[in-house]
Amino acid sequence: LEMLAGFFTQSGRIDEGLDLDRKIVLLDPDNAINHYNLACSFALKHMVDDALGALRTALEQGYEDFEWLMNDADLSSLHKNPALSALLSEFQAQQS
Questions:
Q1: Tens digits of residue pLDDT in 5-43
Q2: pTM above 0.90, yes or no
Q3: Inter-residue contact 61 to 35 (CB < 8 Å)
Q4: How far is residue 92's CA from residue 23's CA, in Å, rounded to a whole number?
């Protein structure tokens, strides 16, 4: 399912990718990468609050590749959002 969701997203079928990402999170809710991928799909749809919420869950579950997150084109709609900066600051501070 993850590969199919990625294929949909990469081929511009964002709605179908989002639907699959939602299902994947329901099937494996404790997987940080699943929530990260869901955040990417939300961000591609410009669903900012949903994207930030999914990112928060990914971070809470241990996602910590902040450098990739800030360079991921799927999240480009969030990169200049102050709420993303605050979220990352919160979790980076916890790692210190």
A1: 999 999 999 999 999 999 999 999 999 999 999 999 999
A2: yes
A3: yes
A4: 29
